[in-house]
Write a structure and sequence with these properties.
The complex is a heterodimer of chains A (about 290) and B (about 800). Chain A folds into three domains: about 5-55, Uridine Diphospho-n-acetylenolpyruvylglucosamine Reductase, domain 2; about 65-175, Uridine Diphospho-n-acetylenolpyruvylglucosamine Reductase, domain 3 (2-Layer Sandwich), CATH 3.30.465; about 180-285, Enolase-like, domain 1. Chain A contains twelve helices and eleven strands. Chain A has helices spanning about 15-25, 35-40, 80-85, 85-90, 90-100, 105-110, 110-120, 125-130, 150, 225-235, 240-255, 265-285; strands at about 5-10, 30, 50-55, 65, 70-75, 135-140, 145-150, 165-175, 180-185, 195-205, 210-215. Chain B is of the alpha+beta class. Chain B folds into three domains: about 30-140 and about 200-255 and about 260-295, Alpha-Beta Complex (Aldehyde Oxidoreductase, domain 3), CATH 3.90.1170.50; about 300-470 and about 635-785, 2-Layer Sandwich (Aldehyde Oxidoreductase, domain 4); about 485-630, 2-Layer Sandwich (Aldehyde Oxidoreductase, domain 4). In chain B, about 30% of the residues lie in helices and about 20% in strands. In chain B, helix 9 (about 375-395) packs parallel to helix 18 and helix 14 packs parallel to helix 15. The radius of gyration of chain B is 27 Å and the shape is globular. The N and C termini of chain B lie far apart (about 55 Å). The chains are: A alpha+beta (about 290), B alpha+beta (about 800). The interface between A and B is medium-sized, with 26 and 30 residues.
């Protein structure tokens, strides 16, 4: 065993897991697919004293259709979400983004809930859930509460989830018919952490952009969605010139940082290039 | 019809049966009775004085059996450098001590300063965390230019400056080279970095130490490319154990690429610990330890200049290189940037004048040593990049500039101005084959098609040569080597006629067990299945020097053929007696000894049986038995050569490079197993593409390795690599070994990086974005920055 010693608890129900969380407090971590937590424990970067395994809770991995939304159990494995006909049909932006998420073997173990709660700033799923207006259902000692994605994702590796809560479900509203969408990403290798991602939803009516939602990872901004970029598109003619002006706004609003993969200047270029490609593709997909 | 067995057949790799079904026997798979486990405490700072280490808490932890620190090894020897290099001023290089565990001073992140032995791995690791070390941080030397410019900060406190040696090759030629530059019609100057690489063998290093107090015998299972050299180093230099009292076993080894040539302190530690606690001690590195403590590769900063006529005729080459050796001298670290690099700086070209200057620099980083190609990739990259740049400056076709300067077939044997003698080759033939196989003629059409899709297409090449089959012992001895570089093989014919061959070469994935058996099978006319190749155990094999430098078949394979020749010669004597003929009339072919011109014959098996059941045998003149050993010291290096091309598409928006085609036309001399040779080339090219596009070893200013995991260090994966076109039909057999082989293990890693970079530069130039140079790895960010500079 590479990690520091820990106590292992296997939860058999959500209530059971919530009870264990209440009992162990900040000494405990929830273990779902373990694709981020276990490496960090093996590196001894984190050393939880108690590991509460929620990987075997019946029903936590179900994907069902609710009232105008796809309801994805937090324990659903990435590959199951990615391959889900329901997700492809009703939330194609999420399905698109999944083609950039990690590698097959990681997606076989990793769960959508674990991915969201870990909230790596380069992660694709939190970005598209924000654009899709998803709601996150949290279970806690006082029952369930629902948090919109907009306010769920805070800073890097921070979320609105409290220490005694666990994520149980993600409700993703259907994308309306006729909507255009797109997801573009640049990483050093396929499946690696993204340097920059661009995600877009929009409609085109009477030759103009409407219902625009645009967001980026890697832009160095506090929010995933960029209101300034959305405003630069909303109601404007669906032309290349509008797109060019909008991606310029994205670059101006961005504040990326240098890292070992890429410097800020390059990330600004990617915001521009991927933003343009995503907007062009979304425009082409939207029915006019 | 392709051959189905023996020399030249693509016999299936017999070792793959166990490797691919999980039946391999790697060091980590071995579990011994009473086995305990070691874990190492490694420095988290680049340079510090060790003020104290409090081991008391660790010693009291559950399961802990012993704790070692550097003080425990203060009285034993150090791990020596294998080559002593002479500086230009005649001084011998500096060789600061390399102890088993850091003592008094830690010198790089990952430097081991203590070890805990416990009943379980987990207990050992937990106890390492309970060690209390008091470091007084010292300034870290990380950047080589700083290390040379400012000797107030030193990588080792015992040094007065950070330069290990300042080597000139050949110093007597310097004035003539400088004069040629002074009068040259054109001079191209290029400064470049050959990026540091982490070897990343699939199997991390591992060792098990065993001590038997009743016999005072030690046994070391370890991940080594050369068990006898490890035994010699541990016994004679580090621990002072009688050599015959140490048995080193390197069982199945999962790749080395150079990093497992060397002796590492962990091997000595597990032996010392096994003796102290009286139980076997096992250590298996985790991947982080591999990143931090395996010997890294490359890491040169070079200024290369090419003087030429306006028509592209080369007049002279001059280089100045800073070569990083890290904080400690690993065993081959001083030979790699010198005799495996400077001597190759003529390339396959008839450049009349060459001068190479190399300063080896100590830094507070992991040791740097030979990595697949070892010095030759660095030489090839510098040369092939500057040639491309010169061609662009002179508005000449880089393919034709190379052709104009290649050594021609009428010039062999050809002595270069950097002291190698190329015995044979046909560099025009491989270049022509490359032009054909890469469909150079169709490139413009493909480029136009790429442009329609908004992509920039480029085509680059390299024509390369390397020196393999290291090496003539007398030559390397004169150049500072502290070891001989011969090899050895014993061919043991068993009474029933099947054969065990004990070889000094070591296979860590290459396929020796298959290929060596093919050679013996062809020579003796018996089935491959009747021949086993034994390697990796000093108690079984003769003293050989292991595998690296594409030497196994050229050197050890030659020893093996010489031993087989002796078997045949003795067999003839036995046959002459049995067939009542004169020895001179006995012929051996197809597994039969026969009397010339008659149908009287004895099979190989009958002769073998007679040798061990000598009832009808010339005992008065001939010893019974049929077992022969031969040692072989090569007369020269071998010189594989070839021409590689790479075709890329570059995304103008993102700088992302995609490899569309990669073509190799190689001359490896005679090819024993084409399938295995192709595999070697594929693997080497994959590593070369990794270096060119992806692999970035980055130490920050404080000497922290910020790329110490697979999340940050990008190894090439299948979808980063193209399908390869590999050809080895233009072969010129080596003239000085009987198989005519040259070696193929490193070629791919040597020839490919410049082809990739030249292709990207070509793509940018064709798109009207002239860029002189981009340093590897050509990440999207770097390519984008260069074309938008």
């Amino acid at each position: 065993m590479k990690p520091s010693p820990f106590e292992y608890v296997r939860a058999t129900s959500v209530a059971d897991a919530v009870k264990a969380l209440a009992a162990h407090g900040d000494r405990a971590k929830l273990l779902a697919g373990g694709q981020s937590l276990i490496p960090m424990m093996n590196f001894r970067m984190v050393a939880p004293e108690v590991l509460i395994d929620i990987g075997n809770i019946p029903g936590l991995d179900e994907i069902t259709i609710g009232d105008g939304s796809v309801q994805i159990g937090a324990g659903a494995r990435h590959n199951v979400v990615m391959a889900s006909d329901v997700v492809r049909q009703h939330c194609p932006l999420l399905a698109d983004a999944y083609s950039h998420v990690a590698h097959f073997t990681i997606r076989n173990r990793g769960t959508i809930g674990g991915n969201i709660c870990h909230h790596d700033p380069a992660s694709e799923v939190p970005l598209v859930l924000t654009l899709l207006g998803a709601s996150l259902v949290l279970a806690g000692p006082k029952g369930n509460r629902t948090v919109p994605a907009d306010t769920f994702f805070l800073g890097m590796m921070e979320t609105a989830i409290a220490e005694d809560e666990m994520l149980v479900r993600i409700d993703v509203p259907f994308q309306p018919a006729g909507e255009g969408w797109s997801f573009h990403e640049m990483s050093v290798r396929k499946g690696d952490y993204a340097i920059v991602c661009a995600a877009v939803r929009l409609t085109v009516k009477d030759g103009a952009f409407h219902d625009v939602r645009v967001g980026f990872n890697g832009a160095g901004t506090e929010t995933k969605r960029m209101a300034g970029v959305e405003q630069a598109l909303e109601g404007k003619p669906a032309t290349d010139a509008t797109i060019a002006a909008a991606v310029k706004v994205a670059v101006d609003l961005s504040d990326p940082s240098d890292d070992v993969q890429a410097d800020a200047a390059y990330k600004r270029d990617l915001l521009s290039a991927l933003g343009r490609r995503a907007l062009e593709q979304a425009r082409a997909r939207a029915s006019n | 019809m392709p051959k189905d067995h023996g020399i030249g057949a693509s016999s299936k790799r017999r070792e793959d049966v166990r490797f691919l079904t999980g039946k391999g026997n790697y060091t980590a798979d071995i579990t011994l009775y009473g086995q305990t486990y070691a874990a190492f405490a490694r420095s988290n700072v680049a340079h510090a004085k060790i003020k104290s280490i409090d081991t008391s808490a660790a010693e009291a932890m559950p399961g802990v059996l012993a704790v070692f620190t550097g003080a425990d090894f203060a009285d034993v020897g150090g791990n020596p450098a294998g080559w002593l290099i002479q500086s230009r001023n005649g001084e011998t290089m500096k060789e600061p001590k390399r102890p088993v565990l850091a003592h008094g001073e830690v010198c790089h992140v990952g430097d081991a300063y203590a070890a805990v032995i416990a009943e379980t791995v987990a207990q050992a690791r937990n106890a390492v965390e309970a060690l209390v070390v008091d470091f007084e941080e010292l300034p870290a030397v990380v950047d080589m230019a700083d290390a040379v410019a400012d000797n107030s900060k030193r990588a080792r406190t015992e040094l007065t400056d950070n330069i290990c040696f300042d080597w000139g090759w050949i110093e007597d030629n310097r004035a003539a080279v400088d004069a040629a530059f002074a009068s040259a019609p054109h001079v191209t100057t290029l400064e470049l970095v050959n990026n540091r690489l982490v070897p990343n063998a699939m199997e991390p290093r591992a060792s098990i130490g065993v001590y038997d107090a009743s016999t005072e015998d030690y046994k070391l299972y370890t991940t080594s490319q050369n068990p006898h050299l490890t035994r010699l180093l541990v016994a004679a230099f580090v621990m002072g154990i009688p050599e015959h009292k140490l048995n080193v076993i390197a069982p199945d080894v999962g790749g080395g690429f150079g990093s497992k040539i060397y002796h590492y302190g962990e091997e000595a530690l597990v032996l010392a610990a096994a003796k102290r606690i009286g139980r076997p001690v096992k250590w298996v590195a985790d991947r982080t330890e591999s990143f931090l403590s395996d010997a890294h590769g490359r890491d040169h900063v070079t200024k290369i200049q090419l003087a030429c006529e306006k028509d592209g005729t080369f007049l002279a080459v001059r280089t100045e290189t800073l070569a990083n050796v890290g904080a400690y001298l690993s065993n081959f670290s001083t030979a790699t940037p010198t005799f495996l690099h400077g001597t190759l700086m003529a390339g396959p070209y008839k450049t009349p004048l060459v001068y190479v200057n190399v300063k080896a620099v100590f830094t507070n980083t992991a040791p740097v040593d030979a990595y697949r190609g070892a010095g030759r990739p660095e030489a090839t990259y510098s040369l092939e990049r500057v040639i491309d740049m010169a061609a662009r400056e002179l508005n000449l076709d880089p393919w034709e500039v190379r052709r104009k300067n290649l050594i021609t077939t009428d010039m062999f044997p050809y002595t270069t101005p950097v002291a190698l003698q190329y015995d044979t080759g046909n560099y025009q033939a491989t270049l022509d084959k490359l032009i054909e196989l890469s469909d150079k003629a169709g490139f413009e059409a493909r480029a136009a098609e790429s442009a329609k899709r908004g992509k920039m297409r480029g085509l680059g090449l390299s024509t390369w040569i390397e020196a393999c089959g290291i090496a003539p012992s007398a030559l390397v001895g004169a150049l500072g080597a502290r070891v001989g570089l011969f090899d050895a093989a014993t061919v043991r014919v068993n009474p029933t006629g099947n054969i065990s061959v004990m070889v000094g070469a070591h296979s860590h994935g290459q396929g020796h067990e298959t290929v060596f058996a093919q050679v013996v099978s062809s020579m003796l006319g018996i089935p491959e299945a009747n021949i086993d190749i034994v390697h990796g155990d000093t108690a079984k094999i003769p003293f050989g020097m292991g595998s690296y430098g594409s030497r196994s078949l050229a050197v050890c394979g030659t020893a093996m053929t010489k031993a087989v020749d002796k078997i045949i010669a003795k067999g003839k004597k036995i046959a002459a007696h049995m067939l009542e003929a004169s020895e001179g009339d006995i012929e051996f072919a197809d597994g039969k000894f026969s009397v010339a011109g008659t149908d009287k014959a004895k099979t190989f098996g009958e002769i073998a049986f007679s040798a061990y059941v000598p009832h009808n045998y010339p005992l008065e003149t001939l010893e019974p038995g049929l077992e022969e050993t031969a040692f072989y010291d090569p007369a020269n290096f071998t010189y594989p050569a070839g021409a590689y091309s790479c075709e890329v598409e570059v995304d103008p928006d993102t700088g992302k490079v995609e490899i569309m085609a990669f073509t190799c036309a190689d001359d490896f001399g005679n090819v024993m197993n084409p399938m295995i040779v192709n595999g070697q080339v594929h693997g080497g090219v994959a590593q070369g593409i990794g270096q060119a596009l992806l692999e970035n070893t980055s130490y920050d200013g404080n000497g922290q390795l910020v790329t110490a995991s697979y999340m940050d260090y990008a190894m090439p994966r299948a979808d980063d690599l193209p399908n390869y076109t590999v050809d080895h039909s233009c072969n010129t057999p080596c003239t000085h070994n009987p198989l005519g082989v040259k070696g193929c293990g490193e070629a791919g890693a040597i020839g490919s990086p410049p082809a990739v970079v030249n292709a990207v530069i070509d793509a940018l130039a064709r798109a009207g974005k002239p860029v002189k140079h981009i340093d590897m790895p050509l990440s999207p960010a770097r390519v984008w920055a260069a074309m938008n500079a």
